[in-house]
Amino acid sequence: MALYAELHRHLGGSVVPRVLWRYFQRHSEEMVSRFDDYPAFEEFYTKPRNTLDEYLELHTLVESVQTVETLPYFIYRLLRGAYIFENLAYLELRYTPYLRTPEHLSQSERIDKMAEIVDVVGNASQIPEYPIVTSQILCMHSRLPYEVNKAIIDLASQSKKFVCAIDVAGGDRYYAERLDEWIKLYEYALSLGVNTTGHLYETTDGSYPELLPFLKRIGHGIQIPLRHPQLLPDLARRGQCLEVCPTTYMKTGTLDDIRQLKIVFDKCFEAGVDIAICTDNAGLHNVRLPFEYENLLTYDIISFQQLQACQDAAFKHAFASPYHQRPASLLSGIINPQPGKVMA
Q1: I need a labelling partner for 103 at 20 to 30 A (CA). Which of 48, 96, 246, 272 fits?
Q2: Residue 84 is part of which domain span?
Q3: How many structural domains does the chain have?
Q4: Tens digits of residue pLDDT in 201-218
């Protein structure tokens, strides 16, 4: 039975190495020729990077091949793996639709093409044999102009059948020079009734307390308990949830040791701030969600009770979940119904 919810997974980083390699074998001799064999490609694709910027460059490798024509190919394999190997019942996929449109078009033409991308991703995600509840988070991007980012918000507002929220991504150190613009964009999104999350406090460059009041969830946010714990009471008061992606911080050089996350979990639990454990870029990491759980337990970063609390938090804070509780809780009600209660 599917049991888990994944709130922070990038479409570009979700393609596992073997699937991407097979695609290149069939469609890109030039890409295959760069590597001696598959192990060489996998090592390149999944190895740790020195900085977040260097790490994010890998997204361009996948974005360039995720087009209207190819997205169904990648999404089918993504959902098949998520259902069979990860036991996912709920999945939010995030990406920047503008970056899946043809580069040769003008900006206005690419904006117009974004709706087609959202529809393709949404329709391709409806797979009866892998019944996962899915939704999309559309990412604004720190290197895209205001007009494009505003159009992404408008598209999210107009596409609520498939889209549950907006985000900002692209490297958190680039927000500072346009901070007033980001505040304006988030205010606009909230005015349209669009849910919000954002990549903040992932690295030491991503500290923007001005943006926190506009977010319903916080993408990563680990630097808050690590360096700015005085902010935790406000997060608890607003009911915000951190989307913590453990393997990412090893891959980007943000943390030296995964055990540093114990401070993150301990301080958040003490302050009453929810954490959803996520994968971020399961393909780039070659890591699936249950492994993230197991790793945190193995290193004594969290207890089994805390893991269950994080799994509950993922459903509680899921933007498009119809239940907001783990399927295991629903199953318990069926197996052990309350005395005197007749099951329909």
Answers
A1: 48
A2: 4-326
A3: 1
A4: 999 999 999 999 999 999
